Amino acid sequence: MNTNVCPEMSRNIDIPKIEEMLAQYPIYQYGFLKSEEVEYTEKVRMVCKIECGRYGKSWSCPPAVGTVDECRERCLKYPYALFFSTVNHVVDSMNFTELLATKAEHEVITAEVEKHLKDAGYEIYRMSGESCSVCKECTCPDALCRFPEKMHPCIESHGIVVAKLTDDLEMDYYIDEHEQLWFTLIYFK
Asked: Can you give the pTM of this predicted structure?
């Protein structure tokens, strides 16, 4: 693992304790970074708008999450971030239903990591690798989110390039056609 831990981070957070907790789960790779190291770009937001069917239809996606600048400011309130991935085997990577079915296990692991961090006294802001799927159909934009405590925005919704994070932390972005990687980014203080 490339933990990318600077001396300041080591003084302010208990990295060994967090790593011990992470070892309890089938986490494929992880890394720590200072939140100011994360890059935000409008280009990702444009991809959301043009290519994603969830744009304007999910509380976890743009424009509901705010502008890229608002998202960046929200994240910078937390000085550190934990970025991790899980991997699931799939028979047919072109089968979107099969791919999405593997997301549920990742989200359970993410929720447990989130709980551990909160129980350890950290304040957190969590993002998932895909838009929220708590409800079968999102209430956006017609009504408020039914479960705001369970809804977590998509990493890309904030203008963050997941592939750049994996490069920066020397993590895999792709393995092969039979392995699905899911990502989580948790800011904390």
From this structure: 0.90
